[in-house]
Design a protein that fits this description.
Radius of gyration of chain B: 22 Å
Shape of chain A: rod-shaped
Largest interface: A-B, 34 and 47 residues
Oligomer: heterodimer
Shape of chain B: globular
Radius of gyration of chain A: 19 Å
Largest sheet of chain A: none
CATH superfamily of the largest domain in chain B: MFS general substrate transporter like domains
Number of domains of chain B: 2
Largest sheet of chain B: none
Helix content of chain A: 55-70%
Order of helices and strands of chain B: HHHHHHHHHEHHHHHHHHH
Strand content of chain B: under 5%
CATH topology of the largest domain in chain B: Growth Hormone, Chain: A
Number of strands of chain B: 1
Distance between the termini of chain A: 58 Å
Structural class of chain B: mainly alpha
């Protein structure tokens, strides 16, 4: 069905650069999300006190 | 300049090159959903908005807006979310996710700015128009903007991909609530309750944050597929390799059955979310658990926070699980297990089983979130990926309906019982039994879902650019 796949292996520097971008991208959204989850978790602890 | 901007936003300019890593798409989608998920934290503005004239949240002045009037801001936004998702879905499929995400950022950020002006002028109509109408349109376009792109990038893990994005909508409230509280405290000396400058700051902050999604998102080339991907490996009759347009999808019984499925799931979930804080305080009061052992206001807020966490986790967990279980089985689980759990809640309240009560409520809310996150993959299974974003947009009118219906049912049933003098679990008993009944309807609708008749499928190859025709 599809002729174009991502099966062709990228070169090592390209792979490292792509991996770095992915990590940075996840950090960009992950840090505020983790902060929000932490704040909520702290609030939720009141239920168990 | 306008020409350059326009071409940069075009779908053709967002087609990924060979080295693009598809795992960049979920964070791009999350940037949008984490921002617009702020809507679920709007309640944090309720008290400050109701005391703009008096300056004292506990003693509003005669001209201050009432809680009922302020409640409409969120309701309008949710109704507009569903309507705009339905109206702009086909446009989104045609122009691609980048332009749609930018439109969403402009509307959502701009909505805050208009609402700030409304607060400054003390014009409730302008706040309704700003946050409710303009912001609500941003919510709708933003909510569906990454869905079909994610499904095209992850045909092998549709549930995981959409679960990650829609999880962001749950997480957005967790960021939006403490952020708003901190900003209002910071700006309290500048303007009444600090609300107007907070709206301005949030408008700009969210607009900028969403730009990450706008400029990171890419669509795959038409002939792209993940390495080793074999379509419909599960050989399920409910997973089609054909494509149904949004216009044809709404002519099928399957679309309307899923509309009922979403309506029932969301309405029932709202039943718990709306009653969570008063329910746990009234059911597990000092009278029930003993002096000093009842659930306090702070603990009830903690319970609501815990529900938010499970709402978020459920979106990712259940949607991912649906890749293995199948969508129909997953929804059968939501409704079958949900029915039992809803019916259990009043009994746990009567028997003062606080821990079990909390566990059951968390499970219920995880499935409520899961219902939102699994629906795009269910639609893609049944109708193909061609216009799944637009079909999803039209289905979200069920959410808008539930947003109005859910609180109405809850308030009507619980207030009636309270007027009869009943308290705690007894007051909320009919709410939970009614919600369990709704889940039976959802279960039956889900059972009735069969493969879509081939007469509705597009003949020949389809292109995204044809989405608006």
């Amino acid at each position: 069905m599809n002729s174009h796949t991502d099966s062709s292996p990228p070169s090592a520097p390209a792979e490292a650069s792509a991996g770095g971008s992915v990590m940075l991208a996840w950090l960009f959204v992950g840090v505020p999300l983790a902060w929000g989850v932490f704040q909520t978790f702290i609030k939720a602890l009141a239920l168990f006190r | 300049m306008a020409e350059i901007s326009s071409s940069l936003l075009d779908r053709s300019r967002t087609v990924a090159g060979p080295g693009y890593n598809r795992w960049l798409v979920p964070p791009a989608a999350l940037a949008i959903h984490l921002a617009i998920g702020q809507a679920y934290a709007f309640s944090v503005f309720k008290k400050p908005l109701g005391a703009l004239l008096s300056g004292d949240v506990d003693h509003p002045a005669a001209g201050d807006w009432t809680a009922g009037q302020i409640g409409w801001i969120f309701s309008i936004a949710i109704v507009l979310l569903g309507l705009s998702a339905a109206i702009f879905g086909k446009w989104l499929e045609r122009v691609g996710p980048r332009k749609a995400m930018l439109a969403a950022a402009l509307c959502f950020g701009g909505g805050f700015l208009l609402a700030a002006l409304g607060v400054r002028l003390h014009s409730l109509a302008l706040v309704y128009f700003g946050y409710g109408v303009v912001g609500g349109i941003g919510l709708g376009i933003g909510y569906i903007s990454p869905v079909s792109t994610l499904i095209k990038w992850f045909p092998d893990r549709k549930g995981v991909a959409t679960g990650m994005a829609i999880m962001g909508f749950g997480g957005g409230a967790m960021i939006g609530s403490p952020l708003a509280v901190a900003l209002m405290a910071r700006f309290n000396d500048v303007a009444p309750q600090g609300v107007a400058p907070t709206f301005i700051a949030m408008g700009f902050l969210y607009f900028l944050f969403m730009q990450f999604g706008v400029w990171t998102i890419r669509v795959p080339a038409d002939d792209w597929a993940p390495a080793g991907y074999v379509p419909n490996q599960e050989h399920s009759a409910l997973i089609t390799d054909r494509n149904v347009s949004a216009d044809n999808a709404i002519k099928t019984p399957q679309f309307w059955l899923l509309w009922v499925v979403l309506l029932c799931n969301v309405t029932a979930g709202i039943g718990v979310l709306e009653t969570a804080s008063p329910l746990i305080q009234e059911t597990f009061s000092d009278k029930v658990l003993g002096a000093g052992r009842g659930v306090t206001v702070a603990a009830a807020a903690g319970f609501v926070g815990l529900l938010s966490l499970f709402n978020l986790l459920g979106r990712f967990f259940w949607s991912s699980a649906s890749d293995k279980l199948g969508r129909k089985v997953t929804y059968a689980l939501y409704f079958g297990l949900g029915m039992v759990l809803y019916a259990l809640v009043p009994t746990l309240g009567h028997n003062a089983q606080l821990t079990l009560f909390v566990v059951v409520a968390c499970l219920i809310i995880s499935m409520y979130g899961g219902g939102f996150a699994t629906i795009p993959a269910y639609l893609s299974d049944l109708f193909g990926k061609y216009q799944v974003g637009a079909i999803h947009g039209r289905l979200l009118t069920a959410w808008s309906t539930a947003g109005v219906l859910g609180p109405l049912i809850v308030n009507w049933l619980s207030e009636g019982r309270k007027a009869e003098g009943l308290k705690g679990a007894a007051a909320y008993q009919p709410v939970f039994y009614t919600m369990a009944g709704l889940l039976v309807v959802g279960l039956l609708a889900n059972f009735a879902v069969t493969p879509v008749n081939e007469k509705y499928a597009e003949q020949g190859p389809v292109t995204p650019e044809a989405g608006g025709h």
